[in-house]
Amino acid sequence: MAKIRVKQVKSKINCPLTQKRTLEALGLRKLGQVVEHDATAAILGMVNKVKHLVSVEEAK
Predict the structure, then answer these.
(1) CATH code (residue 21)
(2) More confident residue, 19 or 1
(3) What's residue 60's pLDDT?
(4) Where is the Large ribosomal subunit protein uL30-like ferredoxin-like fold domain (predicted)?
(5) What is the count of structural domains for the chain?
(6) Which residue from 52, 47, 49, 53 is spatially nearest to 2, judged by alpha carbons?
(7) Which residues of 33-43 are buried (b: 16+ CB within 10 A; e: fewer)?
(8) What predicted TM-score, i.e. pTM, was given to this entire model?
(9) Distances in Å between the alpha carbon of 17 and those of 23, 25, 57?
(10) What is the mean predicted confidence (pLDDT) over 28-48?
(11) Mean pLDDT value of segment 25-38
(12) H/E run at residue 56
């Protein structure tokens, strides 16, 4: 399965609570933090929900 690397690039300060919880569910707690996940449908859906706060790239 493909892996993706997700990095938080914008602050969650003025975001709705659902987006804050989505970032925490992805494992992103701090600005600039990077996590690696499998590219499943659930993970891609969460990334799509907070796409304006994160950057995504394929992991090798």
Answers:
(1) 3.30.1390.20
(2) 19
(3) 82
(4) 4-54
(5) 1
(6) 47
(7) eeeebeeeeee
(8) 0.92
(9) 10, 12, 25
(10) 97
(11) 97
(12) strand 54-58
Residue 30 pLDDT level (bands cut at 50, 70, 90): very high
Cα gap 38→10, rounded to integer Å: 22
Question: What CA–CA distance (Å, rounded) separates 53 from 21?
Answer: 13
CA–CA separation, 10 vs 25, rounded Å?
16
CA pair distance 12, 39, nearest whole angstrom: 23
Cβ contacts of 50 within 8 Å, gap of 6 or more: 15, 19, 22, 23, 26
* Structure token digits, residue 49: 């929900």
